[in-house]
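User: quick one, fold this
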Amino acid sequence: LAWLDRRIARIPFASVRALEVRQADGAQLDLWRDTPEQANLAVRQLPAGRSLAYPAAADGMASLFAVLDFADAAPLAQVGFEGRPELEFSLHTFNGALLRGAYYQRGGQHWLLLGENRGLDGLLIGSPDWAYRVEEAQYRVLAKRLNELLEAPKS
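Assistant:
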């Protein structure tokens, strides 16, 4: 596979307006910002009286899409994924582009299936006709939970 272009997406962080991530257990994170000039994404589920561990704590989740690569790939027609995905996401840009996708676990590995997409010409290299295995570290960047983003409670 060394000869393959391993890029799935190259969506610049500066263009990301919102990212919704839903885990299989129903936990959800909604990240957003009103303008491209806002340096960092806000977290809609931020509990009252709590703050993020640092201002850019959630940014990595959206920055992932600027460097999203695969470790392995297979035509979707040859690979079966059953049941509920372990994670689903929707990414929206300031110019109205959209990318939806889902991760499925198979054999202890994370496989990305791209869904609905529009307005991402040249920024989305991957195809909805393929399944992409991503490394654990890349999956974990997107699969963060709210408590991982929050500042530790003051005692």
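User: anything notable?
Assistant: The beta strands are 7-9, 16-23, 28-32, 42-43, 68-69, 72-75, 87-93, 98-106, 109-118, 130-134.
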